[in-house]
Structure formats: C-alpha cells, structure tokens
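User: structure tokens for this one?
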Amino acid sequence: MKIVIQGAGEIGSHLAKMLSKEANEITVIDDNPQRIAALTAIADVIAIEGPPSSLKTLREADVSDADLFISVVPFVHQDVNIVSALLAKNLGAKKVTARIDDNDFLTPENKLLFKQMGIELMFCPEKLAADEIYDLLKHSSTTESMDFARGKLQVEVFKLEEDSPLLDMKIAEFAAITAKDDLQFRVIAISRGGRTIMPKFDTKLMYHDLVFIIATREGMGFLMKFLGKSNIETDKVMILGGSQIAELTAAQLSRKISLVKILEKDKERAMVLSERLPDNVVVVVGDGRNSELLVDEGIKDFDAFLALTGKDEANVLACVSAKKFGIEKTIAEVENIEYIHLAEEMGVDSVINKKLITAGRLFKFTLSGKARLVKYMSGTDAEVLEFTVPPGSAITKGTLKDLSFPKEAVIGGVIRGSESMIAIGSTKIEPYDRVVVFALPHVVKDVDKFFK
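Assistant:
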C-alpha cells in the first residue's frame, strides 16, 4: 500500500515507523529538515522536504497514486491539515485523513459535512486520549480494557500482584478450575518484561505479568470475584496539569461525577481553564509535583489521580507519589513508548499514549475494510482487532482448529446477533459475525486475508 504522511512530528513519525514495518511504501512530507533527518534515521521511508499544503510538494510525493494520505502537520492550525487532505483527495488519493484540534469539528453533523467533502476521517489525538481515560475510569480494577457490542464481549488486562490467585498457576490449571461452571472467558495473551507471549496450556503465570483476558459480560463478573477485584466508584478525580487532554477529560468527567480538581502551575492557563470548564471543576494554581500541595488540596479524599502534564517523568513520579497517599487508581500520560514498561513496573495503574491510540484508528485504513476497530494495547506490542465477516471469506471455511490461522494470533470471541461467545477450536465462524482477534503486528496482514 502506498501511504503519504504529511508531518514528521511525534505522531507522524510514529505512524511512519509503524506502517513501514508492514511492507507499505511510505512517503513523508515535512518542511523541517531536523524532523526529516530524525525520522529517516529510524524508519525506511521516502522523505520530501517541502511546505505543507503545497501543490508542488504534494505532486512530488505522488499523492495521486496514494492509497492513503494522512495529514498530521505539527504546531500549525488545523486548517493546514484540512486543506492538505482536501487537496490530496482532489489530486487522486483514495482515502484521506486529517488531524484537528477543535473538538467542535467532531460533532456528527460536522463529521458528515467533511466526509461529503472527501475526508474519510478527522481525528483529534487529545480527544481520543480523553475518551480512553474516561473508559479506564469505568473499569478501575484493570490496567486497560475494551468493550465490544456495548459490553457483550470485554477484553480486560490484569496485572498480577503478590496476592493474585493466578500466581504460579498454569493456563491449563486456570481453565480446569473454571471449566466446571462453563464460564465464558479465556486468557488470550500475556505481557512479561515487555515481551508478548501467546499462551499455551503449560504457560505459567508469573508475578507482574499483564494478563489479557476476553470474557462475556457474565464471565467477566465471575472472573472479577475470582481475582478479588472490584471496580471503584469514581466520584472525585484529581488531575495534574492543565493540558488539552486534561481539559477534555475534565469536561467529560464533570457530567458524571461530583468533583474534578486540576492542579496547573501556569496562572494564565489556569484562568483559561476556570472560564471554560463547569463549576464542579476546580482549578488550583500550583505545582502538583509538590507533595505538600497535594496534601493541602486533599489528595487522600480523591478516588483517582491523573497525571497529564505532557512530561513523562513528571507524570510517572506523580502517580507513584499519589499511590503512597492511598489513591486506588492512577493514570499517567506517557508518550515515550520506551517508558511505558517502566511506568508499569513502578506501580502506575494505567498508561495513556496518544500516539498508540491514534495509530489504531488510522491502521484500520490499511486493512481490507472489514476491520471495524483496531487498538494497540499499551502493555504489549500486539493489536486487538474487530472484524465483520463477509460471506465466502476464508474464515468461514471450517472450524478454527481446521484453519491455518496464524499461530501468533488468537480469535478470542464472537458476537452473533444478540449473542456472544468465547471462541474455541470447534467454533465455526459464520457470515456477518463480529470477531475479536488478538495478534502480533507482523501477522496482522495475514489475519486480514481471512476476512476478505
């Protein structure tokens, strides 16, 4: 697939690096020679130095033959990305997407308007991150989660601590304990020391493993009891930093909980937030990295702590400090992917990385069109995908055990009409099923072939 990415900032560079590994032909446009040099040092891409929205540059990048055009120019007004996407579409690019920073553009009527103009997807990474945080607070007992068909199937990630009943248990033993009750869940992957393991029956679960489990709604209820987990009722949330992600998260939370408190050290930004946000969002001017300020602002009375300053080290350390004050749920924004595992090792409950979240939204455009959803789980290098099964596709040609499905991918569950089920070897996929797949990156294209 030929993909043109305009903008070699954090998100553009991450996308280029990731997509170039998938045997795609990647061309990147940027007007900053330093950003171009940094990207070409880490990714196999064609780099073109030139101004955004320039017809000459777009033609030089051969966008007329592009299967996908992504405009993510950093540090510019969103108009640049929108205009670039529209120009690329009119020059012949098959699908175009644009990064925006105005949440109002994402209302249903506005999204429809731009789709009619030719932009298949407009996305705001900060809004995607805020939505992810909101979902994580609903699933406060887990490290990460995903719902399918309004919770009929759920993927939850559990970190094994010293008191976990799963410690030193083999997958086969876990399955035997729960099989007698015909419970609907399955371990689909394990992340250990930054490495993803596709489990076998003799795989032993170990301390600090991240265990990925797919379950029906009923199965997840039993599983939570078995693990001694329960979701915390979140009614008061403290946020470190007044970033755009923090603002969007606070606005969303304010509609559901009684109090959000933001600690922002920049007085002018704090005043802006106070004017924009509802009355139940309190903005305090001060450096939230200071433990004395946290105590003065009553951190012990809060249910969750979010560190969203845009500085990875500060966010991780602030969450560690919040844990010492007894906060049950901590979430840190960590944009350096190398730091994610470190943050988890230090006790941060959940990590948000807007590059990974955005990559999942865009990656589905490189697949067959039957992928409804793609998500990169921050605790692993694997991907969770949801496919709609077309009639006659290879996945319908036999039971799962009889198909040559990639070994480094797992079909976890199936949604059929109003019913959901956990997939096993004897399961036969039918047309129009919705199928949840967990796969390592290098086999995703092979998985996609089964759904064409």
